[in-house]
Design a protein that fits this description.
heterodimer; A: about 525 residues; alpha+beta; Immunoglobulin-like; 3 domains; 6-stranded antiparallel beta sheet; 4-stranded antiparallel beta sheet; 16 helices; about 40% helix; B: about 290 residues; mainly alpha; Cytochrome Bc1 Complex, Chain D, domain 2; two-stranded antiparallel ribbon; 2 strands; about 5% strand; elongated
Amino acid sequence: MNLYTSPALGSNDQTVERIDAQPVHPPGAPRQPLYEKRKKIFPKKAEGRFRRFKWIVMLITLGIYYLTPWVRWDRGPFAPDQAVLIDLANRRFYFFFIEIWPQEFFFVAGLLVMAGFGLFLLTSAVGRAWCGYACPQTVWVDLFLAVEGFIEGDRNARMKLDAAPWSFDKLWKRVAKHTTWIAIAVATGGAWIFYFADAPSLAFEFVTGQAAAIAYSTVAILTATTYVLGGLMREQVCIYMCPWPRIQGAMLDESSLVVTYNDWRGEPRSRHAKKAAAAGQAVGDCVDCNACVAVCPMGIDIRDGQQLACITCALCIDACDSVMDKIGKPRGLIAYATLEEYESNMTLATNGGTTSIDPSRVRNADGTFIDNIRHFNWRVIFRPRTLLYFGVWSAVGLGLVFALLSRDRLEVNVLHDRNPQFVLESDGSIRNGYTIRLLNMIPEPRTIMVSMEGLPEATMKITGITDVPGRLFAVQVEPDKTLALKVFVTLPKEAISAQTNDFRFIAEDRSSHEQDSYAAVFNTPGAKK
Amino acid sequence: MADKHIDEISGVETTGHEWDGIRELNNPMPRWWVWTFYATIVWALGYTILYPAWPMVSDATRGALGYSSRADLAADVESARIATGGIVEKISSASLDEILADQQLSQFATAGGAAAFRVNCTPCHGTGASGGQGYPNLNDDEWLWGGDVNAIYQSIAHGIRDSVDPETRVSEMPAFADMLKPEEVRQVSSYVVSLTGTPRDPSLVDAGKQLFADNCISCHGEKAEGNRDMGAPNLGDAIWLKVRDEAEIAKQIQSPRHGVMPAWATRLGDATVKQLAVYVHSLGGGE
């Protein structure tokens, strides 16, 4: 795939605005005091395909976050009709057609494992795409920057406003900006609580002051974190608070896509390219316009190379591409590239590292690139590392799907009385006590048949169900509830033989033919008199 | 620290300590850390003013908020009482049969009775209510004074041979050492053992049967089936309160021992005794 194309190659009659921008976080900067005042970043608005892609991702992710709790899903009269609901009070989790009980929490653990391996897969294939596009910090900072740009203007206007003394104009803009930010933050915190209760009724209670204190405090805390992290701290969160930039070093390799400044074609950079070329000096494609620095929300200069603070949002690619278009050079001076192809091209440009970068080594006489230049090849995505991650990811996913499809919606658990282990009755028979818990895991009432298998002479009595001994009883279990039964099993004197006797409790729903059983033991005194 | 040492590479002063050539840079604390530290000091001072803290000669400062963990506990107990939603009061006013018929009440009473049982009854009857030698097993279907819930309630409330309660259950088996000769006692005990299906010398059993009819049936019944009005045990079933052994039975005939249970109504209150009765009734032998 050739990334270095432009609509009008060779037309360099347009002029490029030169921006006065410096990287705020250059590598190898002189030591700064740890508590040095933060340098403000005023990202310029970028335009281009990655900016458009980021808008789309923002629309989708925020849409999912804000709207999901309002989606309805009919489950009948005995269960809530909210499609996604974490019902902490009743210890149930609803996700469309799936209902999860607390003991099935491994589904959530499995999803977290999948999220982890998905992140590994994504990072080893396309670098920090999570950081650049989908991370909530990135999305909300993007949203807050859009608000800031709308109210205060673009980079230059904001810098001017920031430096200006307090005036009515500055005051209302600042108030408007922070008010909008807080409104977004309240909506963000507010959306969170709707995942934990019926959204429409909670919204009504919340507005009328009847909601639980925990709802208000949760909204308050999330409002504060959204406002502070997304509005005030911004890039500091990624650089100083987040562990992922540190972990990702182990995830990236020479075949991972990262946002790369292709200095093999950009250097030597020159602000007076024509003059330098006329003087017979080597001239690279970089016109040192600093557009890439100006748009960077992290305040870095991508031309310093791959660095921890780069979240790979690719806005510098958009900025540089538009400059390349203007001066009639091929796009892709800053581009997604793997370290492998970058180094191969670098070797060409420096003649194996023996000379400084010479653009003429990678170009033909007409300015086009020589054929030996390596471009990104989609096939490098499919390498053992990514295939392994994908394999684990899909194995966990298939395991979860299998577990979901084969899980029981009727269960029986039995607790054998241990004190006393058995009771001698006046007629010489032996009685054991059990606590049987029936789990009706569907939101419909069910009649469950409880019976015994094995110990043919034994009979059972169920407290509250019957006083007449038998071996098969019908029990009503409420929808989506458990029912504990106290069961006494009696073995007549003549049948007492071994020390212990194995049998099974069977719970069966005859209408759906669902069945579960429990291997139980009957204790007898055995040889004891 | 007399000699000031500056690290060559970073230009930062070190702490002056050295471990095998390794020195620690004396970088200033981050400002946020220092402010957090000051904030914790302010917080701690405020805390000691608001809460009990400073030790005085005979007491400690009470704190401006007047907090005490005892008051906290009392509030918790009160809120737990309120959380039961008046169900204890319902149990107090309902009859035992009404409690058994009401699922909610009987569930609450069974759980409450189990808790009260563990505190008050386990020393004699055991944690599993299975008793011991001389202490009845409450799980089985053998009852000295009756096994329906009202009889159980009566036994718990007023006790067995309680020294104070006028309504307590009382009975006394006479000491037959004065009335029967040792040989006759042996004959009776042989007969009693034979009732449970254990073969014994027929001559002793026959003589014992006659003596039993003359002396024992007024309380234990013609078929030795016992009499709950007098707390006389059934001697023919598989369950023995004391030891199932001929010599022990002979001892019991000659100089009987009698179990004593205190009356609990005055100690625990009526509602708790009702819950205990429901719990004991639920153990499996209830009638």
